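ingest -> validate -> predict -> emit
validate: passed (alphabet ok, no gaps, 351 aa)
predict: started
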Amino acid sequence: MNGDGLRSLIDIKWNGAILIGKSFTVDGHWNRPVRVITHAHLDHVIGLRDSLKNSGAIIFTPATYELITEIYELNGALKALLSKKAIALSYGKYLDVNGEVVRLVKANHIVGASQVLVESNGSRIGYTGDFKLRGTEIMKDLDALIIEATYGSRNFKRPFKDFINEFFADLVNDGLARRAVVYIYGYYGKLQEAMYILRSSGITAPFIMPRKLYKVTSVAEKYCGPIGNYYDEASTELRKLLMDYGSCVVFYHMNKASRRSLTEGLHIILTGWEFREPIRRRSHNTWTVALSDHADYEELLEYIERSRPGLVVVDASRSEYAEEFARDVEACVGIRSTTMPKNNESLVSYF
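emit:
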């Protein structure tokens, strides 16, 4: 398909809505028959209430559907609409809508995260959503690839990314060995990734968390395998359990990090915005760990090199580095690249 024809099948709006084909809007609301949600983070669920009222169907993976129902406080009417309009589409399955075909492709980001592949009018258009390269399926034979650029600047490289899990586990083990309570702060999805890392590193201490985080962890365990030995902080079992173990790991959402106590325990803040060191001391008992669930600059370029699409469209609604990254795609990979939307307003500033 020529450039003008392909351009008519792709658009990105200032509110983060990714428009693909004639039928689909992804990760933002627009008045179209079908809304697709790639994962359960807020900036990709934005506009859900409007989509529930105006779209004919909402597509996501089964895990993302369950996470949305646990994380977001929808009233009874909206819950009923979500249940009525939800289409839980497993990876690799497809749905035909008005002659256009949509598939969800596995992405390594948070539990249930997906990429989106649409076949429309003879063209194949892929959208990565948010992803980390290892464990993400590379979409190929694409006429166009729409890609995130959260870390689209050359300054955002993590040379230690292959070793960060070991550093993180060692830090937690050190705290537990000193019989300290270890507090870990992060976002939904990243916290569950941290739990799997610690369990795979041989850490068996109890994991304690608030009720909502406990429910999210239960969804992760359902779709990604056992975590085990984790408890709602309101559980009546905890006192005896902690007497038996002597130490534990407590998980909190990132919004609690600024209110943490500085008088006890070991505190670990998980962030993707650390590029100098894998772990960095912030105070006598607080550390930053550079654990990210996004591709860094090098991984973004590697995805494109391995995918080899005809055109790259960089999502500028969620990143201030889109223009820089689009230029680098053309210079480093030799593939035509552009950004959308073209004005300076983005979802970052919208929030």
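The chain has two domains: 3-155+294-350, 164-289.
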